[in-house]
Amino acid sequence: TADRVVLGIESSCDETGVGLVRLATDGTVELLADAVASSVDEHARYGGVVPEIASRAHLAAMAPTMRRALDESGLELSDVDAIAVTAGPGLAGALMVGVAAAKAYASALGVPLYGVNHLGGHVAVDTLEHGPLPDRCLAMLVSGGHSQLLLVEGIAEKITEVGTTIDDAAGEAYDKVARILDLPYPGGPPIDKQAKLGNPKAIAFPRGLTGPRDAKYDFSFSGLKTAVARWVETEQREGREIPVPDVCASFQEAVADVLTAKAVRAARDLDVDTLVISGGVAANSRLSELAAQRCAEAGIALRVPRPRLCTDNGAMIAALGAHVLASGAKPSPLDMPANPGLPV
Ligand code: KG4
Ligand code: ZN
């Protein structure tokens, strides 16, 4: 058998992504194209993703994004051997646009369709950057929609959730704190920038769920966000100016501390020696710094895909699709539904 080209379609949130990868006969997967259109600017004035706006934007962007991915790869649609699409989890209407497009392309081309899990895609994307994953590894997904620790025992075979947020996602906390501080949406990049100018020890913000009786690998960020809001309110009431860099640095330190401590603890307890960090928050400068330091101390190999691959994109879905195809799994039926609550 020869190399196969897999096309991936992503539309679970506010990014329309179309990616192309090549699956070699030895099972390695290579990135060919990664085209993304984002509706993030249309959501900015609402401070979060508006589902209806996202669905309409996917519909408008799908065909042009497909064209861009093909142009970038120098391939034609007729070169595509299989199509993978995000089946869930995500926003129902947004997912449906990608799933409908994938079905249309798959049936027109007469190639198999694979509905895959968005969370698995965030992990699979790392194989495009750092090669095959070990048989067992831990993945930490931190984005606007998810904050999870996943035990990965074969990317196409078995992914088990070992921890999750009990309230807000890490990126959501960034976005909410940015709003409190009058910084733009999405909040991650401006807070990261301000934090570099501030003192991470200036304010002692709480570390959620780190008590001895708390669920070991679960996260909570809503208390942290409330603590920031209370602190800012108090300062304003007393007529003091808000030291934005110090608030950002102290908040960012609390997030990075909890995330890395729990990830390293889980890796040790589960006896895995590789940690993959992915999702939009993986781009955070303090998180990657602290993760590198703590993983080195614990003898854990740290893998973080480049920021562009960490955020939602079609290449991650193509990559997971390629691994599923290589595993010999059965394709999805053409009446496959989108599943907003799809578990890992
Ligand atoms: O993966 P992503 O693009 O979309 C999903 O939510 O699936 O993640 C977006 C999230 C936003 O909440 C944004 O504020 C956060 O990632 N983010 C960051 C940084 N860059 C983006 N958070 C912290 N530091 C950053 N540098
Ligand atoms: Zn995502």
Automatic annotation (TrEMBL):
GO terms for biological process: tRNA threonylcarbamoyladenosine modification. InterPro entries: ATPase_NBD, Gcp-like_dom, KAE1/TsaD, Peptidase_M22_CS, TsaD. Substrate binds at residues 141-145, 175, 188, 192, 284. GO terms for molecular function: iron ion binding; tRNA N(6)-L-threonylcarbamoyladenine synthase activity. Its cofactor is Fe(2+). Its EC number is 2.3.1.234. Binds 1 Fe(2+) ion per subunit. It is found in: Cytoplasm. It holds the Pfam family TsaD. Transmembrane segments: none annotated. GO terms for cellular component: cytoplasm. Its main location: cytoplasm. Fe cation binds at residues 118, 122, 312. It is an enzyme of class 2 (transferase). Residues 30-318 form the Gcp-like domain. It catalyses: L-threonylcarbamoyladenylate + adenosine(37) in tRNA = N(6)-L-threonylcarbamoyladenosine(37) in tRNA + AMP + H(+). Keywords: Acyltransferase, Cytoplasm, Iron, Metal-binding, Transferase, tRNA processing. Belongs to the KAE1 / TsaD family. Required for the formation of a threonylcarbamoyl group on adenosine at position 37 (t(6)A37) in tRNAs that read codons beginning with adenine. Is involved in the transfer of the threonylcarbamoyl moiety of threonylcarbamoyl-AMP (TC-AMP) to the N6 group of A37, together with TsaE and TsaB. TsaD likely plays a direct catalytic role in this reaction. This is tRNA N6-adenosine threonylcarbamoyltransferase.
